[in-house]
Each structure stands twice: as structure tokens, then as C-alpha cells.
């Protein structure tokens, strides 16, 4: 029997992980990256005798594949992707490919915001009592973990791009946190295309599977009315009582599943802010479904320290608190950040605008923001939008300059908040690089 040939487009974490798993499962493997493959990944490919190329795609070598796994960063509109589809070659995501080689119980978490925090928190709770891996859009690749450890359970943080290329993938428990306009440049600027993409997390569900979702999110509830899913639904809400699901009763979170009610106090949650109560509700519902003890859930919620680059308190200098929220790559994430500010704030914002509408931020900017520092190659939209709202708005193109300017503008008792509401690729490698540069600049003040 001839070997199946898999071509992997993109030599990053998910690409190399898939290459290793595919080779172990008897595939002929070829990795092709239009950009430069990082040295550490090249070494892994060479060591495992996997054929690769970078800085170009050899089309003939790509089109003789039986199956193609593409990095989530490559858009469907790329000419090579169109050629692959025209040739009738199936394209899958790493999540789809890898899930065929594990019998683990999978928890899939998606949403425009909060998915890293919720996935990390869910994993943190589950690992107290279960054998569980954390993968997807976070940490080591899912494929590589299946090859190396094959955990009995996985928590996967899944982006809409990863969901676009699934066919049969089905998490036992799916979590949909929220849907707000994001990445519309990849969805023909149609919000409904992006919503449909998020809901693919439940498209292969049966009644045996669960969909946990935010019942306060109108986009989600309206979509479900028109496009019902087969899943057993477990909504969560901080505004209304749920017959089945999770809700807030004054200071208590109540999880109601199968006539079994669990009460959890929210007063001692380690993470602050309304949005984190929702993230805790989603994670706790998952934990309860997977039979984690109530006390373990409670203790985990009280000790979990949060995620780097997400409302991360960096340092206090001259009674000014510096906060790194570099992971806020869209307006809705920045909404939560500004909402949680309890002191006058110098706000550092900007980057690659993905078709942002800043209107929902206006009340917070009027109420809490004393100065704005624009940090991007093109700040025109920010200047036009916020120029009349604050006394001081300045432009910078380097993180060190932005932080020095913030230091000058902030007074005792203020906050300096990096919450860009935009992607980072104009001036930085990624949001982590942006967050690290912010922290370094703060420490160098």
C-alpha cells in the first residue's frame, strides 16, 4: 500500500507538531513555509528526517498531497489554497488531524475574548484530579502532545481560524464564551460568517455532547434561535436564573445540572472583573461535568493567578500602577480592561486595526481615561475618534517612548494601561512580544 502524503503549510508550533505525529503514524510528510522557519523548529525537522522548505512554496510538491494541513494564519484567499481546493485535495486544521489519533475526552473552548484565561483556568482546575493536557491556540501543539503523552483529557483553546478547517472534529464539551466582531478581514467583513465559524465547534455534536455558552450574549442567543444545535445546552448568566446551567444568585455562583445544585461563593475569586466571573462559570461548569469535587473547584478558583499579558499588574512606580493587557487585540477585550479600571488611566492603544468600531468604549474613555498614547504605524483613526474626548493624545512608534510618555503624564494614584484593541504585527512580532517590551520598558523607568 502506498503511503498517504501529507503536506503541512507553516513550520510553526502546530505545523511541526503535526509533522511529527503524521510521521509516527506512517505518513509521508512534507513541510512548506512561505516565511522563514525558526531555527529550533528546523532542528526538530532535520533530526526527525522530515523533508521541509522555507521562504517559498514549491507548488508541484504541494499539489501531490493526499491531504493538506494548513497553519491557521494562512487565509482561504491565498492563491495556493485556492489551487489546492481546485485540485480536490482536502485541507484540515491541526486540531482536526490530531483528534483522529486520540480517544481522550476533549473540552473545546472558543470565543472572541477570554478563551486563554478560561482554557488555562479550566486546565488548572481539572489537573488537580485528572490526567489532562492544555493545547490548541496555546502552549505545546495538540498533535505533539498526543504523540508524546496522550493525556486522557484535553482542554483546547480554539480560534475561529482553527474551526474553519474542521470536518469531523467534535469536542465532548464545547464552550462558547462570547462573539463580538473580530478578524472580520478574514470573513469578507461579514459578521455572520465569523459567528458561523465560532458555532462550528458544535456542528458535529449529538445530544450526548454539551455546549456551554453565555446566555447574556445576544449574538449567541439569537443565532441559536435561528440555527439550533444538537448539543445538550448548558447556558451561564450573571443576569438571569437558569433552570439548567450556571447563574449568579447575589454573591454565589450556582451550577444546576441534573437536579444537582452546587453553590460556589464568588467573593474570593482570584481574578477580578465581571468578565472573569463568566470565565469562572464556564470553567466550573466543565469541571462539574467531569466530576471534579466541589471543594477542588472552589480552591482552584481562589488560587488561580491568571494569564500573562491579560490585565497583568506589572509594577507600581511612584504610586502609579502599570498594567499589561497586550492580549487585548480587539475592542471587546479592551472594553473589559477599561471597565475594570478604578482610577484615572493613561491608556496606550493602537496597532493593526481589524475594522474596529470604538464606539462602545466612549463611556469608559469619558469617565476614566485622562490621556491616550497611540502606539502604531497608522494612528489616524484613533486620533480622529478620541481626539476630542481627552485633553492629551500623543503618537509614538516605539514602546519605550510610549512608556516614558506615560510616566510623564501619570500622577500618583493613576493607572497606566497597555490595552491596544488592535493586532500587534505593525511594530511587534506578536502580542507576547508587545507585552514583554512593555514590561521591560516599565522596569527600565
UniProtKB/TrEMBL annotation:
Q: Look up the record and give one Gene Ontology term from the biological process aspect.
A: cell wall organization
Tell me the GO molecular function terms. ATP binding; UDP-N-acetylmuramoylalanine-D-glutamate ligase activity
Q: Name the residues that bind ATP.
A: 111-117
Q: What keywords sit in the KW lines?
A: ATP-binding, Cell cycle, Cell division, Cell shape, Cell wall biogenesis/degradation, Cytoplasm, Ligase, Nucleotide-binding, Peptidoglycan synthesis
Outline what the protein does: Cell wall formation. Catalyzes the addition of glutamate to the nucleotide precursor UDP-N-acetylmuramoyl-L-alanine (UMA).
What is its EC class? ligase
Family matches, as Pfam families: Mur_ligase_C (PF02875), Mur_ligase_M (PF08245), MurD_N (PF21377)
Q: In which pathway does it act?
A: Cell wall biogenesis; peptidoglycan biosynthesis
| Catalysed transformations (reactions) | UDP-N-acetyl-alpha-D-muramoyl-L-alanine + D-glutamate + ATP = UDP-N-acetyl-alpha-D-muramoyl-L-alanyl-D-glutamate + ADP + phosphate + H(+)
Give the EC number.
6.3.2.9
Q: What is this protein called?
A: UDP-N-acetylmuramoylalanine--D-glutamate ligase
Q: Where does this protein chiefly localize? A: cytoplasm
Record flagged with keyword Cytoplasm: yes
Its annotated compartments are: Cytoplasm
Mur ligase C-terminal domain mapped to chain residues: 309-422
Which GO cellular component terms, listed alphabetically, does the Swiss-Prot or TrEMBL entry include?
cytoplasm
Q: Where is the Mur ligase central domain?
A: 109-287
Similarity field: Belongs to the MurCDEF family.
Amino acid at each position: 500500500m502506498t503511503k498517504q502524503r501529507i503536506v503541512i503549510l507553516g513550520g510553526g508550533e502546530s505545523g511541526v507538531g503535526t509533522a511529527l505525529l503524521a510521521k509516527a503514524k506512517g505518513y509521508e510528510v512534507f513541510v512548506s513555509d512561505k516565511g522563514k522557519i525558526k531555527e529550533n523548529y528546523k532542528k526538530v525537522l532535520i533530526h526527525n528526517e522530515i523533508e521541509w522548505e522555507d521562504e517559498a512554496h514549491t507548488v508541484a510538491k504541494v499539489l501531490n498531497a493526499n491531504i493538506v494541513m494548513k497553519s491557521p494564519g494562512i487565509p482561504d484567499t491565498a492563491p495556493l489554497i485556492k489551487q489546492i481546493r481546485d485540485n480536490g485535495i482536502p485541507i484540515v486544521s491541526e486540531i482536526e488531524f490530531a483528534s483522529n489519533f486520540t480517544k481522550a475526552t476533549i473540552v473545546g473552548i472558543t470565543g472572541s475574548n477570554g478563551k486563554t484565561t478560561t482554557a488555562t483556568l479550566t486546565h488548572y482546575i481539572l489537573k488537580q484530579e485528572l490526567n489532562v493536557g492544555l493545547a490548541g491556540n496555546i502552549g505545546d501543539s495538540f498533535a505533539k502532545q498526543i504523540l508524546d503523552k496522550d493525556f486522557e483529557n484535553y482542554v483546547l483553546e480554539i480560534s475561529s481560524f482553527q474551526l474553519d478547517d474542521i470536518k469531523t472534529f467534535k469536542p465532548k464539551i464545547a464552550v462558547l464564551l462570547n462573539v463580538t466582531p473580530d478578524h472580520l478581514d478574514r470573513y469578507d467583513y461579514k459578521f455572520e460568517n465569523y459567528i458561523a465559524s465560532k458555532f462550528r465547534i458544535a456542528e458535529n455534536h449529538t445530544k450526548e455532547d454539551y455546549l456551554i455558552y453565555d446566555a447574556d450574549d445576544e449574538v449567541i442567543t439569537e443565532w441559536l434561535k435561528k440555527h439550533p444545535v444538537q448539543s445538550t445546552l448548558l447556558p451561564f448568566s450573571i443576569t438571569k436564573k437558569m433552570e439548567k446551567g450556571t447563574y449568579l444568585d447575589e454573591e454565589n455562583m450556582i451550577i444546576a445540572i441534573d437536579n444537582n445544585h452546587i453553590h460556589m461563593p464568588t467573593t474570593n475569586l482570584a481574578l477580578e472583573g465581571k468578565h472573569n466571573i463568566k470565565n469562572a462559570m464556564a470553567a466550573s461548569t466543565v469541571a462539574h461535568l467531569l466530576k471534579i469535587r466541589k471543594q477542588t473547584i472552589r480552591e482552584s478558583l481562589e488560587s488561580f493567578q491568571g494569564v500573562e499579558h491579560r490585565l497583568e499588574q506589572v509594577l507600581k512606580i511612584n504610586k502609579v500602577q502599570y498594567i499589561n493587557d497586550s492580549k487585548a487585540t480587539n475592542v471587546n477585550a479592551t472594553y473589559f480592561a477599561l471597565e475594570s479600571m478604578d482610577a484615572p488611566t493613561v491608556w496606550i492603544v493602537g496597532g493593526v486595526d481589524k475594522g474596529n468600531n470604538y464606539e462602545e468604549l466612549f463611556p469608559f474613555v469619558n469617565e476614566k481615561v485622562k490621556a491616550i498614547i497611540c502606539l502604531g504605524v497608522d494612528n489616524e483613526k484613533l486620533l480622529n475618534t478620541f481626539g476630542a474626548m481627552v485633553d492629551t493624545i500623543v503618537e509614538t512608534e516605539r514602546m519605550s517612548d510610549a512608556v516614558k510618555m506615560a510616566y510623564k503624564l501619570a500622577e500618583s494614584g493613576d493607572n497606566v494601561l497597555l490595552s491596544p484593541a488592535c493586532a500587534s504585527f505593525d511594530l511587534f512580532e506578536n502580542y507576547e512580544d508587545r507585552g514583554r517590551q512593555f514590561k521591560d520598558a516599565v522596569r527600565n523607568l
